[in-house]
Specification:
Oligomer: single chain
Strand content: 15-25%
Number of helices: 5
Helix content: 40-55%
Largest sheet: 4 strands, antiparallel
Mean pLDDT: 86
Shape: globular
Amino acid sequence: MKIRYKCEDSRSADGLSETVAATPSLALVYWHFRHLPESVHQTPGPYSKQFLTLVIAACERKWGTAPDIAIPQPPGKYDWKEAVQRLEANDPEVLHYEQVCLEILHWLENYDVSDLTVDGMKLEEYERRSI
């Protein structure tokens, strides 16, 4: 799986960054980092307990609204390589968590994420193919 998108980035010279990530959760890590104060140099990993709560809080802080989703518990403390392996093996807990992350990225298309693709396809096309 390859997630690609562009988003606002105050740290970039032209105000935009392009992201390529192996999983939706990792793509959200990069998005979250870009929305932290410049004095902050790290963000929790995608499978830490507070990660999605912090992503939702960043949305609320920036736009006064956030995706209306139930935040799942992370399926375990995985590094991104293990998460990719579990995703490719169709681990149901990892699949669910990554699907929620993808839903958040899709919601962010209403705000500062653009050109969101999954494996080179727009999200709607990817989802139709996956059914």
